[in-house]
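In this supplementary section we document a worked example of the pipeline. Step one takes a protein sequence of length 357 as its only input; no multiple sequence alignment statistics are reported here. Step two produces a three-dimensional model, which step three serialises into structure tokens for compact storage. The input and output of this example are shown verbatim.
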Amino acid sequence: MKKKFLGVFLLFSIALVGCSSLSGSDDQTETQMEPQENPETQTGQSSSVLEEPENILVAYFSWADNAVLDDDVDAVSSPSVISPGNVQQLAGWVQEKTGGDLFSIRVTDPYPSDWDECLDRANEEHAEDARPELVENVENIEEYDTVFLGYPNWWYGVPMPLLTFLEENDLSGKQVYLFCSHGTGGLAESVELITEAAPGAVISENIFDCYEEEASSSQQEIQKWAGEIAGESEEVTELQRISVQFGENTVVYELNDSPAAASLCEQLPITVEVEDYSTNEKIFYPEQGLDTTDTPTAEGGAGTLAYYSPWGDVVMFYNDYDANPSLFELGQAVSGTELIGEMTGTIVIDLADTGDE
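The serialised model returned by step three reads:
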């Protein structure tokens, strides 16, 4: 008897970041640039880009892009308004890594280049819950699937023009990754404010943040972060879902990003005979064993797709089960869960088309 208790933009580059501490510390160095201009990086370090970058937007807000410089502006007391600014610099590195389109959020009424005066205005806008008017919005926003959004922490939150941008540019259904330059206040309430202003967006918990003093030396860290996200996006596109067809019925599974799930996908399509096992699962045997390195163990629940390494079989649970250290999770059923128990005969497993759901 088989002994398995089977179980599966906005780079608000500004010292305003420092506003988070209300002390008037500013987001170091921010360069002036046009909305679609690509800022030069300091190191010239080469980086890989996605093959299809047109669906990625890198949007950010910076003080440098939103202030008219006085002739006597002090680069020591107001470094964030001098090119290049913190958030702007971070955004440029993200754009360089991902190949996305760069967009600077700009207001029609520029901020003062004096830090104290800028701080006062930012405080007034925050108190009034203002929505400063923008020079322009993103053209064809619907064409973007992924948005990197950069900003500084101002007054324990975000610059109010960022909220204007979110309310005027529909990010519904888009994957949004945040990056922030800040002072001692950290992220503060910025994530909550962004989530409220873009209720239809998918705000990732994978956030890059750094102290303003460290922004200019963060190229390697933020490009590693952006590169990992870009890689995850490609992998999800290829491995996100598979379909299991039997007769006129189809069950669709959403896979995790484990090596085991990837090695299963590499063998598709598969046509095999499904087998009954116990009272809670259907199984089939792929031609090759799966790589379980860094793959999570299955923890229980109907609809789990798993791999039992001692026997080399893939398991489709239709009732609950007990966890087992040799049982590795591949994914979960997202449609047709109620049909799993009815599987019989020949089944065809393949990458899922959008019409399989």
